[in-house]
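Continuing the series of single-chain predictions for the mutant panel. This is the parent chain; the variants come on the following pages.
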Amino acid sequence: MAEISAPKGVRDILPGESWKWAHVFRVMQETARHFGYSEVHLPLFEHTELFSRGIGDTTDVVEKEMYTFLDKGDRSITLRPEATASMVRAYLEHRMGTLPQPVKMWCAGPMFRYERPQKGRYRQFWQVDFESLGAASPYADVEIIAISLELFRRLGLGRLEVVINSVGCPECRPEYRKRLTEYFASRRDQLCETCLARLERNPLRILDCKQESCRAVTEAAPDVYDSLCGECRDHFDTVKDGLDALGASYRLDKRLVRGLDYYTKTAYEILSGELGSQNAVCGGGRYDNLAEAIGGHHVPGVGFAAGVDRILMVMEQQECSFGPVPSVDVFAVALDDASRRNVLQLVNMLRRNSIVAEMDLGGKSMKAQMKAASSRGARFACILGENERAGGTVTVKDLATAEQRELPLSSLVAELHNKLTSTREG
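Parent structure:
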């Protein structure tokens, strides 16, 4: 029988890497707390119409990438390709409009898109998502950009670039769409097949195309700033002024429209030169009409999402710190079979006192147990035999210096904490 392997486009996150993920999530949790964002946990699948109506049926995500199926009740279900639509659905369903506004939430978890696997991009990928719902103020946009920058600063990332744009609103976008349609229609022969299909349905999507021929055409495309209404222009000017006040440098890019249809006004990305052409580590913006698109009342919102795989990739390339590598503080060694029960009790006591402790579970000899202690990187070996059992003591061996001494069992925890603290501080 053939061995079963993981499907294409997914991967296992094994112990040698998972501790780095844990570090990133700890930083995210702490940063979210300092900015007043509460963590939520959302379903992995939703009704398909949430994404088709919310994200937009002309987007690549809805047209090509969603994992959609009929459940046993003949309902169309989709594995979530992103979290923003789910966040807004939860806000509406649980009547969060009655809470103090804005409601600031974040989540982290796997998303699913059927696309070509490549460096830093998988069909099941982890994403962190921050959303601020209920505030129309441009300062909410500034705060979202600020929290993403602060998150990356705390993770130690450098050489990042903030790119911002305004994509207007339903009042001014039709005029801009008309100008784009006229411009691209006169250059049909230079557009790829995908962008030709976008021309009639959503010409803004052409600005997001990564094909070289299309990007060359978009260089001279009409400028969105010339079409913004007064409200959108004022909103964008305030966002830029807020970023200036925070000392956050940024670059304007009229072609930045993001890949989802729900964006209004502010759109932004944070780019890294470490990732090649697929260089966004974070992206987001404002989506004031998303709640209405999925059948709810008007709820202004702004947020961002960041791929955890990509964050870790950039951190490794920039040699950022993930904190200390997980290690064993103490490996307990039984000198004889009669001592194994005592070793079990000892290990349990150490663990309950916040000391990372391990023991042999396979009946190995003392020599093999000491070898296992070294291979696991233990700092100390706690040795128990007949003499130690009789005297209520433990022999503690420093595996770095080979020094050992016998300690009363009653003072062992305090002694080990002192030694471990001095070792870490040293």
